[in-house]
Amino acid sequence: MRAARVRPTSPEGTPYGFPGNVAPSSAIEIHDDAPKPQISKPGELLIRVKASTVYKDNLEWNELYPPSHATLGNDFSGIVTAVHDSKQNFSVGDHVYGMTHANRGGTWAEYAIVTTEEAIKKPDNLSWEEAAAIPGSALTADQALFRHVGLEITAQNGQKRVLITGAGGGIGTFLVQFATLAGHHVVAASSSNERNESFLHSIGAHEVVEYKDFATLDKVDVIVDTVGFQVLADCWSVIKPDGTLLSFDARSWGYREEHKRKGVSKGKESVRALYMIAEPSRESMARIAEHVANGNIKGRVSKVVSLNDVREAYESAHSRGIARGKIAVLI
């Protein structure tokens, strides 16, 4: 089986892994003789992978450093080739898409094991690469808004004012769309209105603002921060005292305590500061699939590469400029 795998040690024999020894992109190798996975547990499906995507920080995930070679890739679209039992609501030949758990990966390969919690049937109107471009970012956005922040999926009990940072990015675009579709008022923030304002309005944002103009904003109930660093620090100036701030930067709690200590966020002690990592979820995927079927969202693909070119694609993911959409890998 062909697969893109990560060499477990440096050329000098030092094991890759945390702390402080992230594998470089040069450790990604194409193997023609990788072992084909075999299903062994209830709920498992074996799929012939047709497409996956590139995450720019995948080598920084310490879950992906087992003792032997790791196979990267989490998003997938493909064809079911084997099922563990007949009670799984999937059959051989089904076209599916989804995302494997962060601690497993495995989809930069001709075959991969996925679970029934991770997969959902692919509609015919999505290409393999379009389908693979949806799950990771869309699942993250859905769970951020509706599971962790607790926004209503339909704003029946009051519209919230929601600020999204990095709104033009992969996760940010889904955050803007999902919050808008749920009936909330969305403020989309990015580094450049000139580059992003028209696009962000086109996907549903009610207001578009640059980070440097946060001081001009009315206070917001919810912030979902996809950027971190200084942008996250500036978010404290626009959140309401009883608001919720979710960041994908693990230092979000640290920022809260630091601001309290300095007195910068006086009166913000009741702000709920959250951090999250997305997990496979059929509930989330069902909502996403409904949006796909209704034409509300689609998979945006900026570039398509072959498995042979996945190392170069990973390297380019760190310097893609303003490209919108995922790098898809056709297997």
From TrEMBL:
One of its GO terms (molecular function) is oxidoreductase activity. Residues 23-329 form the Enoyl reductase (ER) domain. InterPro entries: ADH-like_N, ER, GroES-like_sf, Lipid_raft_assoc_Zn_ADH, NAD(P)-bd_dom_sf. SMART domains: PKS_ER. It comes from the Eukaryota. PANTHER family: ALCOHOL DEHYDROGENASE, PUTATIVE (AFU_ORTHOLOGUE AFUA_7G06260)-RELATED (PTHR43482:SF4), PROTEIN AST1-RELATED (PTHR43482). This is Enoyl reductase (ER) domain-containing protein. It comes from Penicillium flavigenum.
